[in-house]
Every structure is written in C-alpha cells, then in structure tokens.
Amino acid sequence: MIRVTLLGATGSIGQSTLDVLARNSEAYQLVGVSGHQRLQELLDICIRFQPFYASVPEAAANPFQQQLRDAGCRTEVLAGPAGLEQLAAEPGSDLVVAAIVGAAGLLPTLAAVKAGKRILLANKEALVMSGALFMDAVQQHGATLLPVDSEHNAIFQCLPDHFASQGLAGSGVERLLLTASGGPFRGWSREQLQSVTPAQAVAHPNWSMGQKISVDSATLMNKGLELIEACWLFNLPPSRIDVVIHPQSIIHSMVSYRDGSVLAQLGNPDMRTPIAHALAWPERIHAGVSPLDLVKYGTLSFEAPDEAAFPCLRLAREAFQAGGTAPAILNAANEVAVTAFLERRIGFLQIPETLERVLQLSKVCPANDLQLLLSEDQLARQLARQIIEQFH
Ligand SMILES: NC(=O)C1=CN([C@@H]2O[C@H](COP(=O)(O)OP(=O)(O)OC[C@H]3O[C@@H](n4cnc5c(N)ncnc54)[C@H](OP(=O)(O)O)[C@@H]3O)[C@@H](O)[C@H]2O)C=CC1
Ligand SMILES: CC(=O)[C@@H](O)[C@H](O)COP(=O)(O)O
Ligand SMILES: [Mn+2]
Predict the structure, then answer these.
(1) Which positions ≥6 away from 301 have C-beta within 8 Å?
(2) How does the average pLDDT of the chain come out, rounded?
(3) How high is the pLDDT of residue 166?
(4) What SS3 state is found at 308?
(5) Residue 168, pLDDT score
(6) Residues annotated in the binding site for Mn(2+), as ranges?
C-alpha cells in the first residue's frame, strides 16, 4: 500500500486526486488530509476515506473533532499552521500531494520536502516564491519532486531519463514549448478586457479549476508562474522556454531536441491524468479519463501570445530575471490583486497594473532566507493593497 497525504483535499486538485485514489484503492491508502474553509466537504472526505489525520484551522479544530466523533470517525484533528506542517511531515505517509493554493502552501510543502517525501507538486506558487531555497531543500533532504501541473508533467514525460543528471548539453534537449490555452479572453483587445466580470474570467474554456488559477489563466499570469516553475523544475533559463498558445489544451507541452524532433504529451484536459501519472510513476494506473478522440477535435491550432493585451507573461519573465525576492513579490501582489478582482474592487486590467507598480516600488533582495522571503511577501501584499486603494 502506498500511503498518501493530500494537502488541499477540498479543492479542485484535491477532488481529482481523491477520484484517482478511489479508483485504485487496492494500491493507495489516504492517511492524511487538509482543508481550510470547506469543512463540510472535509468531513465527508474523512467519513468516506477514514484517514488517520485531518488538518484544519485552529479555530475549527475542536468542533471539527467533535463532528468526526459524532460521525463515528476516528480521524485525529491537527490544528492550525503547526498542525498542517506536522501533517505534511508525518512519518506514516510515503507521498504528499501539495494542492493548497497560493503562498499558504509554502510552509507545509517545505515541511514535506524537509521530511524527504515524494512530493506531487501542484502548488506552483510555493516554488515560484522560494525557487532556489526550495530546490536546495529538495537536494539536501533527498526529497523527490514530481510535477503535477499539466504542462510540467507533460514535459517531465517527454524528457529523457538522464536529463536531470546531464542537463541540456548531455541530453540533446534544445527548448521546452510550454502550451497555454489563452484562457477565456484569447483574442480580446484591451478595450474589451476593461469591463470583463469575475464570472467571465473564471469560465475557463477547457479546464475546471479553482477560482484563483482560473483568473490567472485569464490574465496569462498562470503561464508566467508556469514559466518560472519550469525554470526551477528543469534547471533552465527562460530564454530556453517558448510559450505557445494552443486553444484546444490537448497538447499539454513539448520538448524540442537538437535533431529536430519535438516530443509532445497529449490527452484530454483532465487533471486526473497528470495526477495518476505522478502517483504511480514510473508505473501507470487507471485515471478514469476517456481515450483521446483526435478525430472529434479535428484541428489542433497554435498562435503566439498577445503580450500587449496580457502583460503578465512579460512581468513574470522580468521578475525571474531580476531574481532574488522578485518572483515572491510578484506572486504576493498577484494573490492580492486576484482577490480584489474576484471581489469586484478592481477591474481585470488593474491586475497587471497592480503587479507592475508593486514590482517598480519594491526593493529586490537576495532570497536566501525563508523568514526574509515571508516578510517580503507580507510587504508586497501591503503595498498591493495600498495601490488598489488608490485606484478608487
Ligand atoms: N485546479 C487545477 O486544475 C490545477 C491547479 N494547479 C495548482 O494547484 C493548486 C490548487 O489549485 P486548485 O485545486 O484549483 O485550488 P482550489 O481553490 O480549488 O483549492 C485550494 C485548496 O487549498 C486550500 N486552502 C486555501 N487557502 C488555504 C490556507 N490559507 N491554508 C490552508 N489551505 C488553504 C483550500 O481549502 P478549502 O477549500 O477548504 O478552503 C483547498 O483545499 C494551485 O496552486 C494551482 O495553481 C495546477 C494545475 C492545475
Ligand atoms: C490544468 C493546468 O495545468 C492549468 O495550469 C491549465 O494549464 C490552465 O490553462 P492555461 O493554459 O489557460 O493557463
Ligand atoms: Mn498548468
């Protein structure tokens, strides 16, 4: 039995992971889960899967424990941020699925890294914020990092086995081609983007996902975060990574080789495929995803991203190049701006505007200390809130 801890069990990735686990229950046992606000869903998960541990916010711990007892469930509650880190490092699990959204996932994911776990990384923001620190910790503690983000999982599948040890020169890899759907506003002008609503922004054309990543896909910030994520995961500069708009989301990304070969990973847009791949790697298991019907799709198309209408991709590239705390600042400002947009306090175009201003006004420092990163994250959030206030 492979023992699995699922951080962010109540979210979209959490639900897809539970589905794959349930289909393969002879091989996987869910031993720990976490939730934050959707605690009724977490209770249902505990009743169904009977994990040993469930982590919830401090204030909810006692009532949640009582609810579990009332339901005849022996799951033990771990409370607050310390409980979440304890869950992530729990010795009784073999792998940790990191599926909390945003910076809130950093400390628990790092706790799993420091415990030397096999980590299935969906929480891209954690890696974007702390890239060098994170990857050093993976090395130092002998953790195994497997990408769940569909593009990075696709690239991982298309790279040769010796890529990690031999890098570009030794493996014949020339470039990575990161595909992007273009989101719900692909082809729209800045003028059209001015008045789009949160409901329109979260209506992704191909994927069913949480609200934050859906807005990121609409602004192309998701692709910016993914560019940075790819640089860290595959140890490449951004100049080796092209972003290609592919509206059908059938090709999940590609690797281009020295001899002209381009290897791609294809599949229906369903996160159960990369989750199943990472859960079973190097084996393969059933994911419940229907076979790809290429004839039904007929055409796969490609275009260049419109960086004038969607400046977030450029901002992410610039932040990665600035280095140090710049990606953490960008990520923090983005989290604040996306929340403000979802609450209708700013317009869609004010998301990149906020990020640009926060980056201009922030001092970038070396990011070699976790406490400093966390305090820079807080400062960037404060600054983003002030800038958003000034929009009114
Ligand atoms: N959804 C997708 O298809 C994909 C997602 N990803 C990445 O995976 C991560 C999760 O995305 P997704 O599942 O869509 O997001 P959701 O919003 O659907 O779920 C987020 C999860 O994080 C938990 N959470 C939120 N805030 C906190 C907090 N402060 N402390 C602890 N837990 C918290 C939520 O708990 P609760 O719900 O109980 O409040 C929930 O379990 C993101 O980083 C995203 O970029 C990557 C590729 C694809
Ligand atoms: C499913 C997944 O990995 C998402 O990150 C997805 O790729 C978002 O789609 P976009 O290509 O529109 O950002
Ligand atoms: Mn992705």
Answers:
(1) 246, 247, 248
(2) 97
(3) 87
(4) coil
(5) 87
(6) 149, 151, 226
Q: Where are the domains of the chain?
A: 2-147, 155-268+291-297, 323-389
Its CATH class, for the domain covering 323-389, is mainly alpha
Which residue's alpha carbon is nearest to atom 11 within ligand 2? Answer: 180
Which residues make beta-bridge pairs with 266?
251
- The residues near 142 (Cβ < 8 Å, ≥ 6 apart) are 116
Do the bridges between strand 28-34 and strand 76-79 make them parallel or antiparallel, or are there none, so unpaired?
unpaired
pLDDT at 142 over 90: yes
Q: How many CB atoms lie within 10 A of CB 237?
A: 10
Which CATH number is 2-147's, of 3.40.50.1100, 3.30.565.10, 3.40.50.300, 3.40.50.720?
Answer: 3.40.50.720
Cα-to-centroid distance, 223 and ligand 2 (Å):
8
Q: What is the residue whose two structure tokens read 């990973």?
A: 265
CA pair distance 309, 274, nearest whole angstrom: 30
Q: What pLDDT was estimated at residue 164?
A: 85
Distance CA 23, CA 18 (A): 9
Pocket test for ligand 1, best of 6, 19, 100 (most atoms within 8 A of CB): 100
pLDDT in tens, 143-153: 999 999 999 99
The H or E element that residue 179 is part of is strand 173-180
Amino acid occupying residue 21: L
Six-digit token pair at 228?
């940075």
Query: Model ipTM?
Result: 0.99
Residue 348 has pLDDT above 90, yes or no: yes
Residue predicted with more confidence, 173 or 368: 173
Contact at 8 Å (CB) between 101 and 122?
Answer: no
Whether 380 and 362 have beta carbons less than 8 Å apart is answered as: yes
